[in-house]
Please model this.
Amino acid sequence: MIKKMLLGAAMLQIVLLSPVQAADPLSSGQGPWQFRLRGIGVLPSSGGDTTIGGSPEADNAFVPEFDISYFFTPHIAAELILATSPHDLKLKNSTLGDVDLGDSMILPPTLTLQYHFTPDKTFSPYVGAGINYTLPYAEDAAGGTVTQLEADGSFGWALQAGADYWINDNWGLNFDVKKIYVDVDASINNGAITGNVELDPWVVGAGIAYRF
Model:
């Protein structure tokens, strides 16, 4: 009877431990590097002011994004995201009414320092904070009222939360949300109109992760 109980306990332990072992991707010797390929939505919370009143606005953009992470310890990592997004720009309720300003590409490299709560489990959530540099480029004025458009680059802060879900030792799925706090100075018609654009975008993404 005792032997049967011990055998049953051993079999139960094997069953219970099996998913834990499968959920431990670091146990097989993952390296410190991690790459992700995500589709992201860049969702500006537009606002600000100009010398002719009104509120500047930038529309949403949906683009691919690539990021690189390096793990200093199992819990601490740094992540750099690389992406660029196109945005149509408008000025709402100015003294000239609603004005189509044109469009611009935005390059927003963002470096965050992350804390991963359960790096040795299948489900591995994390939080992060860091710095962003938003660089508008390839500005294209709308024409008509707006003949020239220029925006300066600017530093800002970033907050982050997300999670990796590991399918096996190297491959996983990722979901990530960032809030970036950044303003850019804009000039229209060679400085005839100037303004401050509060972009402050949410960056929401999902994709695949590879750890090695």
Q: What stands out?
A: Residues 2-211 form a domain with the Porin fold (CATH 2.40.160.20).
